[in-house]
């Protein structure tokens, strides 16, 4: 597979539609390509919302239900406020393709709405924020949560100089249940913090703690909820 073709596979990899062999080759490519690693991290919120939609949608709702007439405009506005201007066109294309492929019901999960007016809710103050450095692993993480109608919107910033390795953020509820919030590939020899966004169907007050782990289950850092 040529390098250009590998770059083009970033969306398919983020959505989990690559075959096993192709995904394996693309993960090798991620180790050396910081640009694709960043794109995969940015696509995680969209793929996370699709997973939440699949879990929460009643069987009576057709997966290809037609979106509302202004849903795409609202979604694009939300995406635009969250991403740097230089990447707007690429993310707009992703948002449009998700709306066309999945339908309007799915994407209402990705955009906060005011319950009385139906308007998009701007980012408000965080519901909670916590940060910690693990004394044993040296990994630093900061987690910020915001309440949404569908659960919690979660942002995690991580400093981990031991890459490359695949990591994930896990939310652990007060009832002992676990949900994967987001995952990413930590670049090699990276001393700077990287930031990812994800979500959980659990509300902030239902989450006991967050854990950053490797894909192999190795514990890196724990952040207890306030």
TrEMBL record:
<dbReference type="Pfam" id="PF13490">
    <property type="entry name" value="zf-HC2"/>
</dbReference>
<protein>
    <recommendedName>
        <fullName>Putative zinc-finger domain-containing protein</fullName>
    </recommendedName>
</protein>
<keyword id="KW-0804">Transcription</keyword>
<keyword id="KW-0812">Transmembrane</keyword>
<dbReference type="InterPro" id="IPR027383">
    <property type="entry name" value="Znf_put"/>
</dbReference>
<feature type="transmembrane region" description="Helical">
    <location>
        <begin position="90"/>
        <end position="111"/>
    </location>
</feature>
<keyword id="KW-1133">Transmembrane helix</keyword>
<keyword id="KW-0805">Transcription regulation</keyword>
<keyword id="KW-0472">Membrane</keyword>
<dbReference type="InterPro" id="IPR041916">
    <property type="entry name" value="Anti_sigma_zinc_sf"/>
</dbReference>
<feature type="domain" description="Putative zinc-finger">
    <location>
        <begin position="9"/>
        <end position="36"/>
    </location>
</feature>
């Amino acid at each position: 597979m040529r390098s250009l073709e590998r770059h083009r596979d970033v969306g398919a990899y983020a959505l989990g539609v690559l075959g096993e062999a192709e995904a394996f080759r693309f993960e090798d490519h991620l180790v050396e390509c910081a640009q694709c690693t960043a794109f995969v991290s940015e696509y995680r919120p969209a793929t996370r919302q699709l997973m939440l939609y699949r879990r929460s949608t009643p069987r009576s709702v057709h997966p290809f239900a037609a979106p509302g007439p202004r849903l795409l405009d609202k979604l694009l506005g939300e995406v635009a406020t969250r991403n740097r201007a230089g990447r707007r066109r690429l993310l707009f294309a992703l948002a449009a393709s998700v709306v066309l492929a999945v339908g309007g019901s799915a994407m209402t999960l990705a955009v906060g709405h005011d319950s009385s007016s139906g308007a998009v809710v701007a980012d408000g103050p965080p519901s909670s924020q916590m940060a910690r450095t693990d004394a044993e692993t040296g990994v630093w993480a900061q987690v910020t949560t915001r309440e949404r109608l569908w659960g919690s919107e979660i942002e995690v910033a991580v400093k981990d100089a031991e890459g490359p390795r695949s990591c994930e953020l896990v939310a652990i509820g007060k009832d002992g249940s676990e949900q994967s919030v987001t995952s990413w590939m930590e670049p090699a020899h990276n001393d700077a913090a990287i930031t990812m966004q994800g979500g959980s169907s659990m509300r902030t007050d239902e989450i006991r703690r967050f854990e950053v782990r490797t894909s192999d289950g190795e514990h890196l850092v724990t952040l207890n909820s306030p």
